[in-house]
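Two quick folds needed for the group meeting slides. Do the first one here.
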Amino acid sequence: MNAQLQQWKSQGQFFEYLGYKVFYRDDGSAEKPCVICIHGFPTSSWDWHHIWPELSKHYRLIALDQLGFGFSDKPKQGEYSVMVQADIVEALLQSLGVVEYHVIAHDFGTLVAQELLDRGNHPEQATGKAPYLLSLFAMSGSIFPELSNPRLIQKLLISRVGFLISLMFNQKKFDRSMLRVFSQTSKSQLTEPGIRQLLNSYWQLLLLQNGNKQLHQLNFFLKDRQMHGERWARAWQETDVPIRYVVGEADPMYGHDVFQRLKDLSNTQDLHSISDVGHFPHIESPQQVLKLFNAFIS
């Protein structure tokens, strides 16, 4: 594991959820507004390293590796679902004494956030006193089932041959798959050594506890979206929680065309696109993301 990842891990800790160890970082004073960052597939809390130093100056910043990702446990027979990931988020916040919080979410992390929105819309269904969600800053997610645009590799991973795809997966295939979701501009700005180091770090995190052999289980959110997508869409449409949505124009999954359709569907019209950016705005254009987030919160 490279020095950058080792440093990230050394600045975090673990909490236990139903016998599983979940990694998280918690930086900043409890007196500051709390922001929790929820990553997407197939990455981890390390995703936020570009915007972390600046945000932690102003907020109590919390990020976790969702179950099955990063430094957290990756049980072979674990119960992987968006609902379980939302349970873990709430359990972590409660264990840290957080009463109210903001969310930054990316990729399938937006589905976890929509699950949290739905729970906030129906507090009478809650089994305990959950922390209160103040706002949602969402990036690069489908939001509505009809906007779902999974890539071929993701479709294969949830098919009957998914376990075989996981077994045959290697770093070369992983790098090629990840590079397809970055914009050409981002790849040139990151430079060849920079993008290689980034991809190698993602691969190292995936290798922990043989996570690369469990990719077919970690695409659980695609099936969850088929079952719960309409409910999550209603939560997005009906919530009183302020929402801002951001997408990269060059994102092959949720870029220009899908973004235009989202404008027609969404009651929330605080929608922004960043030109020459792909699926990872917080990696490809961190300063733009910081600008949009700070303006949204203030």
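Then this one, please, same format:
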Amino acid sequence: MKKTILSTAIILSISLSSCKDQKSTGTNIETKEEKSMEISNKEKVVALLKSIETGAQEPAGYINPEKYIQHNLGVADGLAGFGALLQQLPPNSAKVNTIRAFEEGDYVFTQTEYNFFGPKIGFDIFRFENGKIVEHWDNLQETPAKANPSGHTMIDGTTEIKDLDKTSENKALVKNFVEDILVNGKMEKLASYFDGDNYIQHNPNIPDLLSGLGATLEALANQGIFLKFDKIHRVLGEGNFVLVVSEGHFGKDHNSFYDLFRVENGKIAEHWDVIEPIAAKETWKNNNGKF
């Protein structure tokens, strides 16, 4: 499998060259390429992620080989960086199970359960141009050994996407919540974003209910540990799900926060997140920045 995965970039470049040569001759290569482009960007991303596990070669063709901007700070830019990362994987070790996938405009964002240098939960964001992936961001966190105080994992819960006509409305609601509460600390507005005490929580350390969130934050504050969001970088949504990408501090650590919210009847009903410390700049393998 390792050899198969590592050959993907080479095979891709050969395939692309072959396509250019044969397109002008009227062979069926063009037809196959056009057929492959009929699938949605969301399907392309799910297939690409799964290929990390299976070694399938075709999904690499969904990446633009001439432009692939990488924001994972531990991976070098371009397809070469992606290939070098795969080379480091122990043979047959990778597992990829995408739980949720969403699409907004040129962006696809996913929540995935990985075994990737150990078990992890991750959010990935891909940007497309002309049907090809040209940019990637992610956030990864080690999978906890046990469920949170309410018995939830970081990935369980509903996956149904609905209320597509309310995407913009739900994005505005969630962005306002993060700005008011997590960035600006306007705790007097907290209750207005929720349906009473109803709130399902998937953070590994926080129980359900709005009161559970408040009690956890208070307990941390009593220990001198504070959660502070400094800036929102991106808000993406599809229907009742909204992902907010932010940076800030949890205690003394400078972190990247990916928070996925489910909205129901105009109120925040459920929350998943991944928190990743931002690596020191001298360790970065690309200069694109985390965000």
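Slide caption for protein two: Confidence is low (pLDDT under 50) at residues 1-32.
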